[in-house]
Specification:
two-stranded antiparallel ribbon, Mlu1-box Binding Protein, DNA-binding Domain, KilA/APSES_HTH, HTH_APSES_sf, KilA-N domain-containing protein, KilA_N, DNA binding, three-stranded antiparallel β-sheet, 2 domains, 260 residues, mainly alpha, elongated, 6% strand
Length: 260
């Protein structure tokens, strides 16, 4: 099964690409502040664009097989999509600033395809700009992999709807940190829609990582099914980690016996 390329953003607008890598001209137009006389259809109707398409037919089409250079998708999230080189041409017609930004992103993505470590470098740089410490970055990378595995397990075991995944997340948070996501935001004075994971200490992130790892293994081992059973396994795994953390913090305190 093919996977859609990772999108990017400009002026707060996500520039999507379809599973074949074609870029949304509609999103580029929105990112350029939706100029009235520069919609994708008007660019495609230009004589210079038609000449470009004719040249592209012989130079690019053979490499794309049966896929069209320009295509449309219906629906709420549809729009006009075009092969990357054509999208760059459209971006240049829309705005020099947009053209340079999109061009840079395309070069970065090409470099990352040849050397995947560059993806991690870019993510690390982004976290540093947001004030993450080295320890938090390491824990965040580790946690994202574990979270991805847990989400995949939840999907395979019948968790459905946003509320189902949210209940599993809160079932993990509550034993560890004494409250659900909303409570954590309140304790840390975070905005209503902030991601609590991005404001956790290294210890909090590692504890969460371990709880989600144990939950994924437990759900598969006992063959839990559905929202309630999977949330129960998430809660049980988090309770085990919470007890371990409490026990560790108590070790060595005056008046407490050494663990046997």
């Amino acid at each position: 099964m093919s996977t859609a390329p990772i999108p990017f953003a400009f002026n707060g607008v996500i520039i999507r690409r379809d599973e074949s890598g074609r870029v949304s001209l509609t999103d580029l137009w929105k990112a350029a502040q939706s100029p009235k006389k520069k919609k994708p259809a008007e660019w495609l109707a230009r004589e210079s664009t038609q000449e470009l398409l004719e040249m592209a037919q012989s130079l690019i089409t053979p490499k794309m097989g049966q896929l069209e250079l320009v295509g449309s998708q219906a629906g709420r999230y549809g729009g006009t999509y075009a092969q990357q080189t054509l999208a760059l041409s459209y971006a240049k017609w829309l705005s020099p600033e947009l053209h340079l930004a999109v061009n840079q992103v395309f070069f970065e993505r090409q470099a990352e395809e040849k050397s995947p470590d560059k993806i991690l470098d870019r993510a690390e740089a982004a976290y540093r700009r947001r004030g993450f410490t080295d320890a938090q970055i390491r824990a965040r990378f580790l946690g994202k992999a574990t979270r991805g595995r847990l989400v995949s397990v939840l999907a395979r075991h019948g968790v459905r709807g946003a509320s189902g995944y949210r209940n599993c997340t809160n079932a993990t948070y509550k034993p560890l940190w004494g409250g659900e996501a909303a409570d954590i935001r309140q304790k840390k004075n975070l905005p209503q829609k902030a991601n609590p994971r991005e404001h956790m200490s290294e210890k909090e992130l590692v504890g969460l990582h371990l709880a989600e790892l144990l939950a994924a293994e437990s759900i598969e081992r006992v063959q839990a099914r559905g929202n309630e059973q999977c949330a129960a396994e998430c809660r049980r795994a988090a309770q085990s980690v919470a007890r371990m953390i409490v026990s560790h913090e108590q070790d060595g305190k005056p008046g407490l016996p050494d663990p046997q």
